[in-house]
Amino acid sequence: MRLVVIGGVAAGLSAAARARRIDAELEILVLEQGRAISYGACGLPYYLEGRVKDLEELVVYTPEYFRNERRIEVRTGARVTAIAHARRELALEGERVRYDRLVVAAGARPAAGVPGADLPHVFRLHTLEDAARLKQYLDEKRPRRAAVVGAGYIGLEAADALRRNGLAVTILESSPWVLHRADAGLTAAVQKQMERYGVELRLQTRVDGIEPGRVGDVPCDLVILALGLHPNVELAAEAGIERGRTGAIRVDERMETNLPGVYAAGDCAEAHHLVLGRPAWIPLGTTANKMGRVAGANAAGRRERFSGIVGTSIARVFDLGIATTGLSVEQARQEGFAPVSARITAPARPRYFGGKPLTVELVADRNTGRLLGASITGEEGAAGRINVAATALHARMRAEDFEQLDLAYAPPFATVWDPLLVAAQQLVKLVH
User: Fold this and answer.
1) Residue 62 and residue 137 share a domain
2) Helix ranges (DSSP H) in 247-354
3) How far apart are CA 432 and CA 162, in angstroms?
4) What CATH number does the domain containing 24 carry?
5) How far is CA 335 from the centre of its chain?
6) In whole angstroms, how far apart are CA 432 and each of 97, 330, 365, 428?
7) Confidence grade of residue 92 (pLDDT, cut at 50, 70, 90)
8) Which of 145, 181, 275, 374 is deepest in the core (most CB within 10 A)?
């Protein structure tokens, strides 16, 4: 019995490792088209900043580790060109590989660029090679002005890193929002933080092309493209694997595609969104690892399910934590809910203990009282609290139940009325 996994980063290696734990006799082969496996892509901005001194620090495991410790064969530089499921066969350059079960964990790639994207001063920040090339350019060319195209997580974190390296930075974002979230309050908080640290954030600014020395009317000698991601689905689609309404691979709760014995996981696949009640495509490393585990378990003969996601994430911009889960008010309205929200600012800890302001917004459906989403911004305490909100979304909790949560209190950690509960109190008044 042979399991083959296409993709050797988060989802692919999670699938392979989980399958090995279940079946000690299973033959497992992982095919990765890149040169590195199992690395923390989320750490790339911190390498750019200088906090991470060596890219090798971001590499968690090597092919040799998987081969020697897990008895999993990992091949790098192995690009799959076709899937022939009728023959249970993969085509690589110059050879064919047989499989009994297949996990497609092909990931995602940066969205298409704009004219001028191939100029020598234009970079992306997606792989270890991207980061190494960009760092070399910074060290050798000493650029002074940078334009970052896109205000998603990578764009904001790259702008932070470049500013800490002394560059003048302008962010150009085509939408009215940051972080791909229709949330006016969150966007205003991020814009204020950027301005505080000398970064210009231009919203609703379309970039049609890049020229030597400038992007539109912004002079620059360095450009970072952070236009978002696109799921790598072409190989799967050519093999007859269906895509969902998001454009990513459609899977069931067992991560199985429409082809029996073929599973998909990670940034190339959809996941069930527990608030929306339908599939969504939200490429995050946390989700990829969970999906990979389930895909690997089922490929090895188990029957496990992945319950879904609520889209929880967090980023740091100049020491400001920006955390979100579920839907914003505008997103909820677009999805047919009748949303209400409560937004409060309160200290994360007692002021006498040095507590800093924390802004919490909770969103609920007016008709049912069900919590739909949350956003939290602040220099401390955002991560733990967004996780509480995400847990409530998983549990389909109502605002009046959330208000009664028994949360911990001690002056070094929180206030007696936690900011989450203060926001919940205000929200309950608006429901029904």
Assistant:
1) no
2) 285-299, 329-334
3) 47
4) 3.50.50.60
5) 22
6) 59, 19, 9, 8
7) very high
8) 374
Query: At a CB cut-off of 8 Å and minimum separation 6, what does 175 contact?
Result: 151, 203, 204
Catalytic residue among 27, 40, 42, 256: 42
The reported pTM is 0.95
Question: Of 178, 204, 225, at which residue does a domain stop?
Answer: 225
Question: Is the domain of 342 the same as that of 196?
Answer: no
* 3-class SS of residue 215: strand
Measured torsion, CA atoms of residues 113, 229, 388, 421, in degrees rounded to the nearest 10 = 40
Question: Rounded mean pLDDT of the chain?
Answer: 97
Q: What is the DSSP string of 192-207?
A: HHHHHTTEEEE-S---
Single out the residue of 166, 256, 167, 150 nearest to residue 207, CA to CA: 150
State how beta strands 89-92 and 80-84 pair. antiparallel
Which residue is associated with the tokens 């047989």?
98
DSSP tag of 370: B
- Structural domains of the chain, count: 3
Q: Is 47 found in the same domain as 80? A: yes
304 part of a folded domain: no
- The DSSP secondary-structure symbol of 58 reads G
**Is residue 306, in this structure, part of any structural domain at all?**
no
- 182 lies in some domain: yes
Structure tokens at 269: 């696949």
Confidence category of residue 144, pLDDT binned at 50, 70, 90: very high
